[in-house]
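ok so for the tutorial part 2 we go from a plain amino acid sequence to predicted structure tokens. step 1 is just haveing the sequence, like this:
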Amino acid sequence: MKVLIVGSGGREHAIAWKVAKSAKVDKIYCAPGNAGIAEFAECVPIGAMEFDKMAAFAKEHQVDLTVIGMDDPLVGGIVDVFEKEGLRVFGPRKNAAILEGSKAFSKDLMKKYKIPTAGYETFDTPEAALLYLETAEMPIVLKADGLALGKGVLICNTREEAKEGVKTLMLDKQFGSAGDRIVVEEFMTGREVSVLSFVDGDTIRIMTSAQDHKRAKNGDQGLNTGGMGTFSPSPFYTEEVDEFCRKYVYQATVDAMKAEGRPFKGIIFFGLMLTEKGPKVLEYNARFGDPETQVVLPRMKNDIVEVFEACVDGTLDQIQLEFEDNAAVCVVLASEGYPEHYEKGYPISGFENFKDHDGYYVFHAGTKFDDEGRIVTNGGRVLGVTAKGENLKLARENAYRATEWIEFGNKYMRDDIGKAIDELIVE
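step 2 — the prediction. this is what the tokens look like for a chain of 427 residues:
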């Protein structure tokens, strides 16, 4: 098979790495790709939002399956364009990708089908939102309705912060048109857990759990980012939680989308909050998480291309997912100053150290080749260093050891990814 992967981040590198292990595949393309993905794939200079150009490439090169990694093209309707051209593609159509594309839509869906989530109100004008906040209970959460690179969520502890948040989202347009409409949501407390799943329109297959660290600085301080590191599995995702979510959340979401005439094929990412009153859905994403993918796929035993094809063909009920009985931790190496201002173009060294160590991986998120052919930094999140171990504590030790193998000019990372779980691990 020939497979085309659409995207350029650490998630797409992890997908490309996993696809390269498939016995069914002998050629991988990635558009636009990055310096790490180039090890497995032929990188093609087509932007992720250039749908017609992308489909024309897939036709010309007789691509058997295209895998969409990113949210923007999915919400924009790239799958519809590919299907119209008779091309096989993995991902939800535009009318299903709205599950991530509009927080107001997903909240209304959960309310209608009684899927547990936080109480909320939706506002199209700043005046209406500000009026509501005059009497709302604090703390409170403000969410941009549209896509905002995983950063359009503001947790406001006071009324003043909440009013300032409305200004940031709706008037200052910090996240552009994503903030034209906002969701104002009840603040929930508890442990956050991420659960990825494969869906074929009817059947859902749950992957192993993971947990992300969103804040830029140690101790969950600083600004929201796309994610500074992850671990898998989450010790808080118990059998009881799994049983509840299978009954009231996972299949219920798939059935709700089908009932709405929006059958979902692809990945549903469930962001869960484990509250005192039970698990509730924080958010849905319509694609693999980043950097959750970097800890989930290395633990997955299945041939991922077989699973992709089962989702496309509606035969996922014939697949059982299998995961290794171990743990994985990913530490993101970022550019100092991320997620605000940072410099790019620093040469990176140390990749060769990963060749001789089984269970250690380095996934490129923001890298490129410079004019001299060197791999240099090209983004805020530069690399995801992932390592496996018998348990989370050992996986964490291995991941941090591996971060020392990599050097570049303004290297920055959190040193507490998964630290809070160390005390839960019994030797």
